[in-house]
Design a protein that fits this description.
alpha/beta, Peroxisomal Thiolase, Chain A, domain 1, 6-stranded mixed beta sheet
Amino acid sequence: MTGLGLITAAGRGVKENWHRVTTSSAPSGVRKPPELHDLPCDFMYLVGDGVQESFDVGEQRLLDRFSQLAVLAAREAVADAGLLPSAWEGDRVAVVIGTANGGFVYQGEQQRVLLERGPRRVSPMTAALTTTNCAAASVCRDLRAVGPSFGLNTTCSSGTDAIGLARELLRAGLCDVAIAGGTESVCSRLLVAGMCKLKGLSTRRDDPAAACRPFDVDRDGFVIGEGAGILVLERPEHARARGARVRAQVVGYGASNDAYAPVAPHPEGAGAERALRAAMADARVCGADVGHVNAHGTSTPVNDLVESAMLHRVLGAHPLVTSTKAMTGHTLGAAGGIETAFAVLALQHQLVPPTANLESPDPRIAVETVRKEARPARLDCVVKTSLGFGGHNAALVLTRG
């Protein structure tokens, strides 16, 4: 892994994101957009201004916001890797980008146009800009990548699965470089209203900046966020040949499905455990090797209990566990990409970010959660876990470069 790109409510760029996630001291990215007015959860984590202005008018017409975020993160990741799209062999560059909802917001906008102004005013780009492959296709165009390309949707595991699939493409020799991760932007009244009915979102409207509190005894649900996390992976021979800096290595990947319920995880975390054990077997590591877990950690009462029990069962009590969602929000299909980037940075800096807003740890959670301050640690091997609607589970094992 040679490049990282991040754009979230915590900041724009890897450096700003890492500073804010490790200090938990910057102003919160939580906002109350007008689209969510009077809903039980009327707030979400939003990226700051300047996203659309990063593209010329012609590009804006061809890019829904979730694609814009992906392109910006991909540009940073490629530059961070020291690669020049103008000089690379584009047919040896793959792009795999996950998202849970794709152009859901754009689709809603065009639905309103249809109802209010009639079919003649609907954009001819509606079909092209609402599909889940749009972000991957947009990154391909922007970076002149003409190798294998996939838009992946495994809900909240999408970003993690995208990185796992990219690794498999590299191992199979189908590409030399893979640009992979996740992106999401769903400031949608319809989607949030549905999530509220599902009772998955926090309703802490009086203190939205502290509403997302993974592993806390007072947690009451997650808070949606937008953002993108894109990573550059390379075949080892390719990276060595050009003298690239290797940030980390993806040494294991596992995926599974609970086959249990549309939205609830398996109550014993059986599917998540299968994915993690598969990733560890792929990496040839044991629980004692893992020093840190960037957990899915959504801040929902059930998910945090199920996931933490599974982690304790598989890894024991020693790994330092954190969830960075209290700083970025739950970015759904983008979460795996963003949080894998944080796991890579933890390896590089030998520093585990704290779980922001974790004031009173739930006594039922047996794993060691990091809170208040970032904790220095000797890290040679870290894990990223993801659990998604539909029973999707994914896990990655990373080691130092």
